[in-house]
Write a structure and sequence with these properties.
about 375 residues; alpha/beta; Purple Acid Phosphatase, chain A, domain 2; five-stranded mixed sheet; about 30% helix
Length: about 375
């Protein structure tokens, strides 16, 4: 059997405030074209269909159209799971109807033990879950980590294995030895979300989602497809695409098919005069998402507005020299406890969203902090 492995679509995600829906639709059309050219028997989507648990109306419309084209119009069976960015409760709405058109969408742990059989392959669709879900399902209070949970999960899956078929696990978690990028969840406490690669040995192929780089894991039987788009500057040099997987009676093989971004993520460097000269900006694709490294030492009035007139999708400006760079270095050395409350909020907001607070947002925070301070003094 031949299938296409993709993941981490993150429909509705923004890149430093820029809407990516157009890029996501373009990437999907390329994925669909690859599926048709490679004559795959099914399409696997290993989680994080949406970027947030409550996606925007626009994101839902885009995703619905993708499913219509992929499953109803082109007649590809689709095997998908919910990821940590998805709301399993919202996604499972309509599930009983979806399977009538070979759209298998698992959002609950208990569904993972009912394999979907296609051709010579059993697919075990394991959605993202927390340890407590396994603790309740197996009625085992000793389950406290994902590793402990996965030991029980895989043991139960193997009970359903048919010896004359290939076995594919579709899941969404962090495998020990993998490498993360800046656009992925950074919080990992005590290794709770880590699964040892050795636990996956029983499967002919493990179609993973969660990490955005295809090279995050180099295993003989397990791969991340990576995201179809670059979602951060740290992914600038990554090749994005999908895996074409063949499950043969004797062995399973897979081949990577690269996607071409509608707008790429790039970094450019130079002085302000050079960057604003037509000779320079005519030599690059100004429609790309650009991180700019400025070599000027002097302060440039209205710098960002002038750059945005030429480069419409600036995702960041970094001073390699000068006052702003020295100030940045000084700020990074400050202990968190020395920062004022408003500074702490601004720092947290910037780390989470990649943007700075607006003046209005700063005023709201100052007003609320002032009210809290007054209330505390009045006690």
């Amino acid at each position: 059997m031949r299938f296409l492995h993709t993941a981490d679509w993150h429909i509705g995600k923004k890149l430093h405030g820029y809407d990516l829906l157009e890029e996501q639709v373009d990437a999907f059309q390329q994925i669909l074209a690859i599926a048709k050219n490679e004559e795959v028997d099914a399409i696997v989507v290993a989680g994080d269909l949406y970027d947030r648990s409550v996606p925007s109306v626009e994101a839902i419309e885009v995703f619905n159209q993708m499913i219509v084209e992929m499953n109803l119009q082109e007649k590809f069976p689709v095997l998908a799971i919910s990821g940590n960015h998805d709301s399993s409760t919202r996604l499972e709405t309509g599930g009983p109807w979806f399977v009538q058109s070979d759209f298998h969408l698992n959002t609950r742990l208990d569904q993972a033990f009912q394999p979907v059989e296609m051709g010579n392959t059993q697919f075990f669709l394991l959605p993202y879950f927390e340890p407590i879900s396994a603790r309740l399902f197996f009625d085992n209070e000793e389950i406290r980590t994902i590793e402990q949970a996965m030991q029980e999960v895989i043991k139960k899956m193997k009970e359903q294995f048919k010896p004359d078929m290939a076995h594919v696990l579709v899941s969404h978690f962090f495998v020990a030895g993998s490498e993360k990028s800046d656009s992925e969840t950074k919080l990992m406490v005590g290794g709770l979300d880590t699964v040892p690669l050795s636990l996956l040995e029983s499967f002919d192929y493990v179609a993973l989602g969660h990490l955005h780089g295809k090279n995050a894991l180099q295993a003989e039987n397990a791969r991340y497809s990576g995201s179809p788009l670059k979602f951060s500057l740290s992914e600038m040099n990554q090749k994005k695409g999908v895996w074409i997987v063949d499950t043969q009676p004797s062995e399973t093989t897979f081949e990577f098919k690269e996607l071409t971004p509608l707008r790429d993520v790039k970094q450019i460097e130079g002085g302000f005069k050079e960057l604003t000269s037509q000779t320079f900006y005519d030599s690059i694709n100004r429609e790309n998402y650009l991180h700019i490294q400025l070599t000027d030492r002097a302060v440039i009035p209205n710098m960002m507005n002038q750059l945005r007139k030429i480069y419409p999708r600036v995702i960041g400006v970094e001073r390699l020299f000068g006052r702003e760079e020295r100030q940045k270095q000084t700020e990074t050395k400050k202990e968190v406890k020395t920062l004022a409350p408003v500074e702490l909020v601004d720092q947290f907001f910037s780390e989470v969203t990649g943007e700075s607070l607006t003046q209005q947002q700063q005023r709201w925070i100052e007003e609320n902090l002032g009210a809290i301070h007054q209330a505390e003094r009045g006690k």
